[in-house]
Design brief:
alpha/beta; binds guanosine-5'-triphosphate; binds magnesium ion
């Protein structure tokens, strides 16, 4: 492996090279270790955003919509989508591909799907190393989709600058999970599918829950309809606002 050559390509944003390196990391191929050590010295500027939440709440759709806003703002984005191994979401990878197809020709968008391969807390093995590679690409934003709404998601907190927790109407259990401490990892709480019945009530419950003062630093509460691109600009603005305080 010609490390200086590869580093040059990564920094130029060569997607093929980056893809190959990510595959080596995903396969836990030890030949990539010297490269990763060298990459440690390169400090990227990307703001890292974790997008997490229960299966099917619309994380991927939200990411797709948010990517539109990010590109309108002229920023470059890298996306890592961790596909849960759950049989329910066997179609997730394909779904993500179809949704994201509109960005395939866009050099300002890099997308990679990963399999989470078991109980790694919604986090694919090698994710921290992959983020190092993406950072070296020099993008402005890195989005990481992880699935699940349990204590497992807490691990994503350590890898990113901000966590966006996505919920959808009609999932009372999620509120319990939030009360159980999950909310502590969220900087922004998004009620997605706000077009669905029960969204208003759910929003009230969430607002009450957080205004009751169960947290000293309550997350910002927003609602979105990712399919119709509603509330996405507000989410993007909120991310930027928090990013400036970094
Ligand atoms: N009505 C409505 N449907 C939505 C919205 N956002 C996403 N969906 C739909 O919800 C389903 C799941 O969306 P995904 O984006 O795949 O959800 P996800 O959270 O990424 O799913 P997993 O990765 O499998 O956990 C799809 O059929 C979407 O079209 C929304 O704002 N409103
Ligand atoms: Mg998804």
């Amino acid at each position: 492996m010609n490390i200086p050559e590869i580093i040059k390509k990564i920094r130029k944003g060569d997607e093929r090279t980056v893809g190959q390196i990510l595959t080596l990391i995903e396969n836990r191929n030890p030949s990539v270790i010297p490269l990763l050590s060298r990459l440690k010295a390169i400090k990227g500027k990307a703001l890292r955003i974790g997008i997490t939440g229960p299966l099917g709440c619309g994380k991927s759709t939200l990411i797709s919509a948010l990517t539109g806003e990010i590109r309108k703002a002229g920023k470059k984005v890298a996306i890592l989508a961790v596909d849960p191994t759950s049989p329910f979401s066997g179609g997730a990878l394909l779904g993500d591909r179809i949704r994201m197809r509109r960005y395939y020709e866009d050099r300002g968008v890099f997308i990679r799907s990963l399999s989470s391969k078991g109980p790694h807390g919604g986090i694919a093995p090698g994710l921290p190393e992959m983020m190092r590679v993406l950072d070296a690409m020099g993008g402005d934003i890195t989005l990481i989709e992880t699935a699940g709404a349990g204590q497992n998601d807490v691990r994503v907190r350590t890898l990113v600058d901000q966590v966006v927790l996505v919920l959808m109407p009609g999932t009372g259990d999620d509120i319990q999970a939030l009360k159980g401490g999950l909310f502590e990892i969220a900087d922004i709480l998004v009620l997605n599918k706000s077009d669905m019945e029960g969204a208003g009530i759910q929003m009230d419950i969430l607002r009450e829950t957080f205004q009751e003062g169960i947290s000293k630093n309550p997350p910002v509460l927003l609602k979105t309809d990712s399919l119709r691109q509603k509330g996405i600009l507000s989410l993007w603005k909120e991310i930027c606002k928090k990013g400036e305080m970094k």
